[in-house]
Design goal:
InterPro entries: DUF5575_C, DUF5575_N, Znf_SWIM, ZSWIM9, ZSWIM9_RNaseH-like. GO terms for molecular function: zinc ion binding. The protein contains 22 helices and 15 strands. The strands form three sheets. A seven-stranded mixed sheet has the order 6-7-10-9-8-11-12. A five-stranded antiparallel sheet has the order 1-5-4-3-2. Strands 13-14-15 form a three-stranded antiparallel sheet, with helices on one face. Strand 9 and strand 10 form a beta hairpin. The chain binds zinc ion (2 copies).
Length: about 525
């Protein structure tokens, strides 16, 4: 094989990638793809003339740059710890389709580096066949989209690139395209593995989810909510609305084992709704969610807690696994430690545990759960003597997911399912209207309460699209639409207009936005009723 010089020609992509792999190995240089243009743009020329050439040559323009080319700008806090490897190295190689349009020709080869070439680094990073496998997403784009929210035109841009190869990516991008068309305020991130166009995670928050977390930022709940397929898991962030219901405010579909995931999710959530930064007081995570160390830097006013019941379950499981003798006693002590009313009580039970538990268990306990006791034991809790709603919210959320996600799923189908869940009919289906009716029965005259109960019952079947508009909330149904006032107390429908009592639309809009369904102020006062005709 020869050298890589100007004018060198390659007749297939395979020929070039084999040559380039060997050439890189010989010189111990690491190149990444800065940009690629497919030979045939499917958008402009849907599969014409030379299908075989499109397959063998694949690209009409390829630019490769040294791994150390470029500079990092606008790094988010998530990447702040990573040492910058970008030192503006000028080395690059460019190929273009030759004049006969049947081969790739080297049109630029700057082979000088501004750094020493390291065999150790080469051995660590070099992967054969990476070019061969390249799916056509240029790394300059994947590296830079990873750091910010996607703009709709970037989705089209990526879609154009991936049409050349990756069907799954194409479907995902078309879902996102649809999302931006119906909800321009949606916030989405696609994060690719650095310098390799492999998708690591998708962050997703619709406008509605963002407004929920802005209304109810005080306590947030996060857990791994579902397995999407063999490679990806779904993480969900919930808030709690005024009706005590857990509500989805962000999703992250992430490749298993991706580092700094929790920090990424929380930082992205704050970027999508910056007002919450100083308003979140507590974030409760599942016992399986580790890596919460730096979260308090992103949410400086928040405590991070781990769900106590899940910690106990994990401890009980471990005790069983290690076949601890006196398992019942160990369980009892653990239970007492978790629910200790003071640090002193905790310490007492801990010394009892040291006597009772086998060494292996004790070591596990001290390494895994003792040092972060402040995050899960009652005496250090954010709010003491209060049942934590974490498990209730998460199980309600998982029930909803079950109806929308049946693993294993492709990423596009997963995103579609998650977006479908963001619908009024899904929320009302789980409404316990009896509980609310009882509150009204206790507070107002029977005939009023009966009418309210009837409207609540009808709200349970509401199937509207809800849009926030300048004069309130617009509910579109099949062939009809109603406007509920911004204070969620009045409606444009005939029921409300004639009776001044809260109608199904008022309840549906309250449920959707998380405002209290029980609000005695919604009912006209007896005096107000007499005077209603004068209004
Ligand atoms: Zn270099
Ligand atoms: Zn109405």
């Amino acid at each position: 094989m020869g050298e890589l010089g100007l004018g060198r020609e390659f007749h297939t992509w395979h020929e070039f990638s084999c040559f380039f792999d060997e050439w890189c190995e010989r010189h111990k240089v690491l190149f990444i793809i800065a940009s690629l243009k497919p030979l045939v743009s499917l958008r402009r020329h849907p599969l014409h003339a030379q299908p075989s050439l499109a397959e063998t040559l694949r690209f009409r323009f390829v630019r490769l740059i040294c791994k150390h080319s470029g500079t990092y700008v606008g790094q988010s806090t998530v990447q702040r710890n990573r040492l910058s490897e970008k030192i503006d190295c000028p080395a690059s190689v460019t190929l273009r389709l030759g004049p006969k349009k049947d081969r790739l020709v080297v049109i630029e080869a700057s082979l000088e580096h501004n750094h020493r070439l390291s065999e150790v680094e080469f051995a660590h990073y070099f992967k054969r066949h990476q070019l061969e496998a390249s799916m056509g997403l240029p790394i300059r784009i994947t590296n830079s989209v990873s750091k910010r929210f996607l703009a709709p035109d970037l989705v089209w841009n990526l879609e154009d690139y991936s049409k050349a190869k990756d069907k799954g990516m194409c479907e995902l991008l078309s879902q996102l395209d649809g999302l931006f068309k119906s909800d321009p305020g949606a916030k989405v991130k696609l994060v690719f593995q650095e310098d390799v166009a492999v998708l690591n995670s998708i962050f997703l928050a619709t406008s509605h989810m963002r407004s929920l977390v802005q209304r109810f930022p005080r306590c947030l709940y996060m857990d791994r909510a579902a397995c999407v397929n063999g490679e990806f898991d779904l993480y969900s962030v919930l808030c709690e609305d005024a009706n005590g219901r857990g509500r989805e405010c962000a999703y992250c579909v992430a490749r298993r084992g991706v580092p700094d995931l929790v920090l990424f999710i929380v930082a992205s959530l704050v970027q999508s709704a910056p007002a919450i930064k100083l308003q979140v007081r507590c974030l409760t995570v599942g016992a399986g969610v580790t890596d919460v160390d730096a979260v308090e830097e992103v949410l400086p006013c928040a405590r991070v807690q781990i769900c106590r019941l899940q910690v106990l379950e994990a401890l009980y499981r471990k005790a069983r696994e290690l076949a601890a003798p006196k398992e019942d006693k160990v369980r009892n002590l653990l239970h007492n430690m978790a629910n200790a009313s003071s640090p002193r009580v905790y310490s007492q039970y801990l010394s009892d545990l040291e006597d009772a538990a086998p060494l292996a268990f004790l070591r596990y306990y001290l390494e895994t759960w003792h040092h972060n006791k402040g995050m899960w034991a009652e005496c250090w809790a954010f709010e003491r003597n209060r049942d934590c709603p974490f498990l209730e919210h998460m199980s309600f959320h998982r029930q909803k997911l079950c109806s929308a996600l049946g693993p294993p799923l492709g990423l596009a189908a997963c995103v579609r399912g998650l977006l479908d869940l963001q619908a009024l009919r899904v929320e009302v289906a789980a409404l316990n209207e009896e509980r609310v009716s009882d509150l009204y029965r206790a507070a107002c005259p029977p005939e009023s309460a009966a009418l309210v109960a009837e409207e609540l019952g009808l709200a349970k079947h509401a199937d509207y699209r809800v849009d926030e508009v300048p004069d309130g909330f617009l509910l579109h149904g099949a062939g009809c639409s109603f406007v509920v006032s911004p204070d969620l107390a009045a409606c444009s429908c005939s029921i409300y207009v004639s009776s001044r009592r809260p109608c199904r639309h008022v309840f549906a809009a309250r449920l959707w936005t998380g405002q209290p369904l029980y609000d005695p102020g919604l009912l006209p006062s007896p005096r107000g009723l007499e005077g209603q005709d004068t209004s």
